[in-house]
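ok so I'm stuck.
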Amino acid sequence: MAKKLANARLALVLVAVLAVVAPLPAISASKPSLAGFQPQALVVTSRPIELDSDEPKRASFGKLNWLGGLELASKSPVFGGLSGFAIKRDGIGFVAVSDAGLWLTGALAYRDGHLTGLTNVRAGPLRASGGKALEAEDDRDAEAITWARDGKSVYIGFEHHHRIERVTLKEDELGNPLETRTLPKTARRAHPNGGIEALGQLTRGPSAGWLIAFSERQRDKAGNHRGWLIGPRSSKPIGLKRLKGFDVTDLAVGPDGDIFVLERRFRFSEGVKMRIRKIQAADVRPGATLTGEVLLEADGRLLIDNMEGIAAHRSANGSTVLTLVSDNNFSRFLQRTLLMQFALPPRGRDEARR
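replied:
not stuck anymore, here's the structure
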């Protein structure tokens, strides 16, 4: 019965994912207006989910261990469309952005190491340099977010009007942009709905201190994902090997400086898939084509959705915890906002479970 329900759910997801690959007008029509919306508390409810409904006690998936997950919901019409997620070092505080131009902050609640819900959630509109809320569709499509090295601001990547901005974070609210990074011509010329989708600030390796960004669908002459190392005044090309037709949806820089890339693939014949790759910090250098190690590949037989955001932090036992969030495209019936966590055990531990 569980498999039948999963297959029925997958059929619905197939319809919903049309929103992901549909022309721009179809996507834009479903985004809520933030006109007049002011920063405020947001009530977000949650219910626990199991990744494998047929084996609810299953703990090992690929090279990762399942830590649990939640389905999130809110009566607020602005909630949804989450496309970027960043978490504090303590694994509790977070900041997220939606592709409708909304920011959310709050805290993750745990019991015995497992997610139980969100607390102290606040939401507000992303703003232009003058302080006015972003209203135009082309200006507010935020797709990625990552912490700046100062810990007091974040970098946000936008599509349509392609850009990267550093934004203040004070008292759990995002403020005005502090700077806008100049993108290379190849990034500025991307398809409106195929620009920068993944963004992180490197902390170790030969490119430490630089931002790393990848396009969702832009490819180089070899057919691989096009990316860039972006500094304050210049940028350098970098690539990511394209495997099995997956698109890049986000990346996170882990506590050891390595990169975790989140990817998605959709085909009518097979539904939605997601994949997580790990790339060593030492391999990230200008001109390189990165491949990395596949940690997990999942399809509709597991409880996944349109997975768009990934964040990383270190747990008390030394594991790297990966937190994923899905973009429901503001659908209240066909797609869900899922928040899930996996652990990558420290090297040498839990080898038998891999």
